[in-house]
Specification:
It contains 10 helices and 8 strands. Helix 7 packs parallel to helix 8.
C-alpha cells in the first residue's frame, strides 16, 4: 500500500525525497518525460516492478501532485507542471549514474531510457539539413529530428520521415555505442530499415562521435 513515511527534515532535499524518494518513483517520472503512458505501458517499461508496487507509486505521485491521471477511456498518467520540473534533475542523475556499476542481469532497458540518451548525446552537424526519423521500438512509434546541431524526440508518428527504423531498445543502444554493427543487425533481422540507410548511419554517428 502507499507509504506516508517522511524524513521529518525541513531541508528541501529531504522534502523532495519525501515526495520522490521511494523506490521506482523517479523511474516512473523518467518514463513519463516524453509522453503520457497507460499502466500497462509503464509495466512493460519497468518489468522488474510488481503491479501492486507500481500502483502504489502511482497513487503516491498523484497524491503529491507530481503526476495526474486522465479520465477513462484514456486512463493515462502524465507529469503535472510541477512534476515536469523534475526533468533536468532526472537527466543530471542519469549523467552522474553513467559511471556507476552495471546492474546484475537480466537488466531492463526501456525505449525512453535509450531515447533520453540519444537526445542528450547527439551532436549532429549544425550545417546539415534537418533529417526526420520514424523509430519503432517494441511496437511503439517515436519521432526523432536531427537539425541545428541537436536532436529532438517526441512520441508518435512523425508528420513525414526520411527513413524508418524498427528494432528493440537494447539493439538500438548497441547501435548507438557501435554504429559499425548496423549492417550486421539488418542482415540478422534484429533491425529493419525502410528508406535511406545512410540517414540512419548519420544518426548513429551523431551520437557515437567523440
Amino acid at each position: 500500500m502507499p507509504t506516508s513515511r517522511s524524513y521529518r527534515d525541513s531541508c528541501g532535499v529531504a522534502r523532495a525525497l519525501d515526495v520522490v524518494g521511494e523506490r521506482w518513483a523517479l523511474l516512473v517520472v523518467r518514463e513519463l518525460l516524453f509522453a503520457p503512458q497507460r499502466f500497462s505501458e509503464l509495466r512493460h517499461a519497468l518489468p522488474h516492478v510488481s503491479s501492486n508496487l507500481l500502483a502504489d507509486r502511482l497513487r503516491e505521485l498523484e497524491r503529491h501532485g507530481v503526476i495526474q491521471r486522465d479520465a477513462p477511456p484514456a486512463n493515462t498518467y502524465e507529469l503535472t507542471e510541477w512534476g515536469r520540473k523534475l526533468e533536468p534533475i532526472v537527466l543530471a542523475l542519469g549523467d552522474w549514474g553513467i559511471d556507476a556499476p552495471q546492474p546484475p542481469g537480466p537488466a531492463a532497458l526501456s525505449a525512453t531510457s535509450v531515447l533520453i540518451f540519444l537526445r542528450q548525446a547527439a551532436r549532429p552537424d549544425p550545417a546539415a539539413p534537418p533529417t526526420h526519423y520514424r523509430l519503432e521500438l517494441d511496437g511503439r512509434v517515436w519521432s526523432v529530428r536531427l537539425g541545428s546541431g541537436r536532436a529532438e524526440v517526441a512520441a508518435g508518428e512523425p508528420a513525414s520521415a526520411d527513413v524508418s527504423l524498427r528494432t528493440d531498445p537494447k539493439t538500438l543502444s548497441g547501435l548507438l555505442s557501435d554504429p559499425t554493427t548496423l549492417d550486421a543487425a539488418c542482415a540478422n533481422g534484429s533491425v529493419a530499415v525502410v528508406g535511406d540507410r545512410t540517414a540512419i548511419k548519420r544518426l548513429l554517428d551523431a551520437v557515437a562521435a567523440p
